Amino acid sequence: MIDRGEGKQTYGYYPLYLMRERKNVFHINYFRSSNAMDVIKSTKNNKHYLTFKVIGGIVDLRFFLGEESPELTL
Hints:
The protein has a domain at about 35-65. A hairpin with a 2-residue loop joins strand 3 and strand 4. It has no helices and five strands. The protein has strands spanning about 15-20, 25-35, 35-45, 45-55, 60-65. The chain is mostly beta strands and about 70 residues long.
């Protein structure tokens, strides 16, 4: 058993997404919060949106940017 008592949870929810852009550049966005969070995906006028709703707490937001990779083709 991994849990060590109240308030020390084994599982969490850490939303991130990986995206390949038109120029074959990849990036990842990672968003974590110590409090409750909702992640909503929506589409409007053929554009896709992600909305992160957090009620507070400690927020960890990271961006991982990649370089162009000439081996990949679209």
